[in-house]
Amino acid sequence: MIPNARHNEDIFKRALYDRGHEEERRTPLGQPRKYWKSLIDPAFVRDVHSCEPSTCDTILSSYAFRPRQSNVKTFRYKYLLDIDGKGWSGRFKQLITSNSLVFESTIYPEWQAVEPWVHYVSVQVGMEDLYDTLMLFRGDACGKGAHEELGKKIATHGKVWSKRFWRREDLVAYFYRLMLEYVRVVSRDREEMSFHLGSHEV
C-alpha cells in the first residue's frame, strides 16, 4: 500500500457484479449495497470466447467489458482483487509483491508459508464478504471506521514475504526437491531411493 493522497481509493476490479439484487442488500452497518457502486465498478477484460455465438452475445450484452489495464496503472490502486480464471490465478505473486493490499478469492490452496490476514486478505469464492471486507479497511461511504494502517501492515508483510521467500532460487530449490521425490516414487526400488538422515549427519 502506497501511503500518499494520490493513491487511488478504489479497488482494482475483475469480479462479477450481480446487478439484480444488490440494490436491496445491506452491509452490517445498515448501508444499502448500491452505495458501493461508487467504490467498486468491476468488469471483465478481453473478449468472450470458448462459447456458442448466441451465448457469447448474451454474455457481452449482460456484463461490462473493458480493456485490460497495464501493470503500471494497476499498481496505482490501493486495493487489488485477485480471482481465479479458467484455472488458478497466475497474478498472485505479482500482485502481492506490489505496495497494494491484495484481496484473494480462490478455490485453490495457497503455499503454506503465506497466511491469509497476515500477507493478504482472504475473500470468499462467492464474494459475499467482499464489500464488508473492503469496508473494514476503506471505511464506509464517508470513510468512517477505516483501518488503513492495518491494511498497510498486511500489504507490507505480503511484499516483504514475497521478496524474501518467493524468489527464483526458492522455486528452483522446490522444483529440484519435487523431481527427486518423483524419481523416488517411480523407482522400482523405492526404498533404496529413499533418503534417511543418519545420526552422524544431525
UniProtKB/TrEMBL annotation:
InterPro entries attached here?
A: CAP10, O-Glucosyltr/Glycosyltrsf_90
List residues of the Glycosyl transferase CAP10 domain. 70-186
Q: What is this protein called?
A: Glycosyl transferase CAP10 domain-containing protein
